[in-house]
Amino acid sequence: MKKFITILMLMLSSLSFSAKKLYVGTNAEFKPYEYLENGKITGFDIELMNKLGEKLGYEIKWVDMNFDGLLTSLQLNKIDAVIAGMSATEERKKAVAFSVPYIFFKSGHLVLVNENSSFTSKEALKGKTSGVQIGSIQEGFAKEIGAIPKLYSNFTSALMELQNQKVDSVIIAENTGNEFLKTMNKIKKIDFIDDSKPGAAIAFRKSDEKLALEFTKAILELKETEFYSELIKKYFPDKYDDFIEQKQKK
Q1: What are 179-207's pLDDT values in tens digits?
Q2: Topology of 108-194 in CATH?
Q3: 212, 101 in Cβ contact below 8 A?
Q4: pTM value?
């Protein structure tokens, strides 16, 4: 009888542990938020989500996929959450629930062109093509400046076409654009687009709003810790001083 009870308890423990697994979708082509390094997914979002999972008792299981398929996979129950430098726009909020934004500093978007381009400002791109990632907010910014969005599955492909002068420009998130500028030649920055849209947040199914609130509470608590400050310093060193200054004002 004791043996039976022991086995039953082990089975229940196993089921409980399994129920705590959280399958999280991301797009590991968006450095410094998420990217591949030596075959493993890493980045600000990855370390942050792993820490949040640890804090809340979830085992995070990563699922890497195309950016434009993330929210669809979430709605189809293929994953439980999404963290991919994704802004919590009003349009996206119609389909999914979001945590509070987990980025606490102001950022924007770079306008990049080929090094031989004669374009010197975003205004000059009216009627010209601008490469953006499918499903990203950069498509909206391209339209706002009068450019014609040319859609790509990832920014690497867009920038390679920019190098080969097959697209007139690329609009990309500031921090990610700066990372590409460090490693890719034949491209240059000509302008900057301010972004007043909500910052990056974690997406959940509408039916999991309780889970979204759970992560919101954990994010706000983690923001005040040394861990979060060091994470900013590690992945966004140029934003660190602004973050600390903003934090001290509150």
Answers
A1: 999 999 999 999 999 987 768 999 999 99
A2: D-Maltodextrin-Binding Protein; domain 2 (3.40.190)
A3: no
A4: 0.86
